[in-house]
Amino acid sequence: MTTDTTEPSAAERSAALDALRGDRRRYGDTLFKGTATASGTGILLILAAVATFLTVLSFPAITSPAADLPYGAFWSWVFPYAAGTIWAAGLAMLFAVPVALGVALFITHYAPRRLAVSLGYIIDLLAAVPSVVFGLWGINVLAPMLQPAYVWLNTNFGDVWGLSWLFGGTVSGTGRTILTVALVLAVMVLPIITAVSREVFLQTPRLHEEASLALGATRWEMIRQAVLPFGTPGIVSACMLGLGRALGETMAVAMVLSPGNGFHTLLLTSSNPNSIAANIALQFPEAYGLARNQLIASGLVLFLITLIVNMGARAIVARRSEFSGAN
């Protein structure tokens, strides 16, 4: 009886190793695909669960007669809060977006490298500050500091035709107005918009920038011709992330704002429209029965507003999906 002691050839060993590596790669691909699929599905399930929760608990408040509701007829009650939410967030974006884009362009195209790195780090650090800290800063520093400016605006523009709907009325003596809240929210969303826009601007193809400069464009003209068109979808996405933060902000608004009843557009008065999130935070601890259902229903309205805003942003981005910096 003989035993075969022939060693496998180098080619056979190489083939065996290749087969083993291929099995490992296939296993890694399968694991990654499963993890990615589970993550995407999980997000959809969580979103559906939140929507279901809000809808079920909101149903009694939406369908009950106005006489049975603690806060009165639901739609007439929730409208001022919805309008106040959009008004405060819109003002915040009006202040934050130009500054954020300017800072992002300065970091990516104007600042020296060492300064750009330091400034980018500071911007990222600002995004980590808790909202309650912004609220304390707003109520103790910003509001008293701005109150004399509010008096000046009210005195000089309160009776001017076309501006009285913003600066008219009796000016607040504390500075805790919707304008102060908008400025606080602007500072809060500024790092989000800046950070995302900065990364988008850095992805602009270098050839596009160099071609624009080679044709005689100034640096600002190059930014208008190459950087901003390429980064428009990213800018829209950054603005929507910031707007989502502004729409849902709770503690800073609840701490700084001096809320009143109803909605108006005056920026400097002591009675201001409140937001949905801040009103829920203030009223929910003491609410019970249909009052809780009514507050949860207002949360559903805020959820729908955020969903509509993001759907609109996705539609804007999709219109420019055919543009590619690689083409």
TrEMBL record:
Q: Which Pfam families match?
A: BPD_transp_1
Tell me if Transport is a UniProt keyword of this record: yes
Bilayer topology term: Multi-pass membrane protein
Q: Matching Gene3D superfamilies, A to Z?
A: MetI-like (1.10.3720.10)
Subcellular location, record wording: Cell membrane
User: What are the annotated GO cellular component locations?
Assistant: plasma membrane
The transmembrane residues are 42-62, 74-107, 119-143, 163-196, 226-247, 295-317
Q: Name one GO molecular function term.
A: phosphate transmembrane transporter activity
Q: Which BP terms does GO give this entry?
A: phosphate ion transport
> Which PROSITE patterns has this protein been placed in?
ABC_TM1
ABC transmembrane type-1 domain: which residues? Answer: 82-313
Query: Keywords for this entry?
Result: Cell membrane, Membrane, Phosphate transport, Transmembrane, Transmembrane helix, Transport
Give the similarity note.
Belongs to the binding-protein-dependent transport system permease family. CysTW subfamily.
What's the stated role of this polypeptide?
Answer: Part of the binding-protein-dependent transport system for phosphate; probably responsible for the translocation of the substrate across the membrane.
Q: What is the protein name stated in its UniProt record?
A: Phosphate transport system permease protein
Its organism's taxonomic lineage begins at: Bacteria, Bacillati, Actinomycetota, Actinomycetes, Propionibacteriales
